[in-house]
């Protein structure tokens, strides 16, 4: 039997008509799931700008922030795989149901600094690239969210204070972690979080200071505990059919832009985190660090979640994660 292969119209046109020129630029949409003001979307815009410059205008990328193209969640790997959208940013942990390895960066308490987060990324890079290729896509660059903490209406001093909290989480790892501590995790689209806090559907949020600032969570919550839950990675990917249809010099230019933007985004994440913490404090939010006793309690809960994650993640994933933890 001859297997039918679906080829996006853009790719087919390049094969038939030849490579694009400045007068006939290759144009691709990039699905960006965060608002235009978010630093991930801003990074995507900067990437598009540099790609156009470095390719002499022969590749143009239109960034669509805020999920304007209608693709936001766990389906994103398949959306890019099928060429429904040629490019997208994706929060890795959201698609771990499709590819387990993408859940590594949001495992609880694996890292507690940007330096450690980058070392973990370097350890996992080959795994990430292999997983992306399996889904017919290439990772162009990755950037970290600032560390996730807990926004609450009561001060978190011990793990017992997390018990029975109705907390909005952003992926399965976070939900499992909080449930292990006696909490009641709730899965909600980010756009519904503020209203859910107002109505009492939830009473807390696991997210970064940046997201807390953007959502003005000080209007509905009082405390932010820096628990260094995780530094989750966001990745910008491109469908491999589109990638392979580009000329060699266009690919080189895109990779140059991607490397530069990745470096910028790691720095920007840290800067945004510090600025956001300052804004939260200026608006009356009480911010506190995690002491050694609470940290030990969180680590015990995290260890259970990590072991459960690795139980069916495959030997290659387990080797990398366990190797990283031993070095740490």
What does this structure look like?
The protein is 45% helix and 18% strand. The chain is α/β, with parallel strands linked by helices. Helix 5 links the parallel strand 6 and strand 7. The N and C termini lie far apart (51 Å). Mean pLDDT is 92; it is low at 1-7 and 12-22.
Short overview:
With 328 residues, this protein is α/β, with parallel strands linked by helices.
Percent strand equals: 15-25%
The tally of beta strands, per DSSP, is 11
Terminal Cα span: 51 Å
Mean of residue pLDDT values: 92
Number of helices: 11
Quickly give the structural class.
Answer: alpha/beta
Which strand order spans the largest sheet, edge to edge or round the barrel? Answer: 7-6-8-5-9-11
State the major sheet: 6 strands, mixed
Helix content: 40-55%
Shape, per Cα inertia axes = globular
Low-confidence stretches: 1-7, 12-22
Order of helices and strands: HEHEHEHEEEHEHEHEEHHEHH
Radius of gyration (CA) equals: 21 Å
How are the SSEs placed, and which strands pair?
Layout: H1 9-17, E1 26-31, H2 39-54, E2 59-64, H3 76-81, E3 87-91, H4 114-134, E4 137-144, E5 148-152, E6 166-169, H5 172-180, E7 184-187, H6 193-199, E8 204-208, H7 209-214, E9 223-226, E10 233-239, H8 240-245, H9 248-282, E11 286-289, H10 292-311, H11 315-327
Parallel strand pairs: 1-2, 1-3, 6-7, 6-8, 9-11
Antiparallel strand pairs: 3-10, 4-10, 5-8, 5-9
Helix pairs in contact: 2-9, 4-11, 5-10
């Amino acid at each position: 039997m001859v297997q039918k292969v679906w080829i996006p119209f853009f790719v087919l046109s390049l094969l038939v008509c030849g490579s694009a020129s400045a007068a006939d630029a290759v144009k691709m949409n990039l699905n960006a799931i965060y608002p235009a003001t978010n630093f991930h979307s801003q990074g995507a815009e900067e990437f598009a700008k540099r790609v156009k410059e470095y390719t002499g205008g022969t590749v143009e990328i239109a960034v669509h922030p805020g999920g304007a193209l209608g693709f936001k969640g766990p389906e994103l790997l398949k959306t890019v795989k099928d060429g429904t959208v040629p490019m997208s940013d994706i929060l890795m942990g959201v698609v771990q149901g499709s590819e387990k390895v993408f859940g590594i960066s949001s495992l609880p308490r694996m890292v507690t600094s940007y330096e450690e987060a980058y070392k973990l990324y370097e350890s996992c890079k080959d795994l990430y690239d292999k997983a992306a290729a399996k889904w017919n896509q290439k990772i162009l660059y990755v950037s970290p969210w600032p560390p996730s903490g807990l926004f609450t209406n009561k001060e978190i001093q011990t793990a017992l204070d997390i018990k029975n909290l109705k907390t909005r989480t952003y992926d399965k790892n976070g939900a499992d972690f909080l449930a292990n501590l006696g909490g009641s995790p709730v899965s909600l689209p980010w756009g519904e979080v503020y209203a859910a806090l107002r109505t009492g559907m939830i009473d807390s949020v696991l997210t970064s200071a940046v997201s807390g600032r953007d959502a003005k969570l000080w209007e509905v919550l009082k405390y932010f505990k820096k628990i260094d839950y995780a530094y989750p990675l966001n990745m910008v990917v491109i469908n491999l059919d589109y990638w392979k249809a580009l000329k060699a010099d266009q690919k080189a230019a895109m990779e140059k832009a991607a490397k530069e933007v990745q470096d910028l985004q790691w720095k920007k994440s840290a800067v945004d985190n510090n600025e956001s913490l300052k804004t939260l404090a200026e608006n009356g939010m009480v911010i506190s660090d995690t002491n050694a006793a609470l940290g030990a309690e969180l680590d015990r809960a995290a260890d259970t979640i990590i072991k459960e994650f690795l139980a069916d993640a495959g030997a290659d994933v387990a080797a990398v994660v366990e190797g990283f933890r031993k070095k740490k």
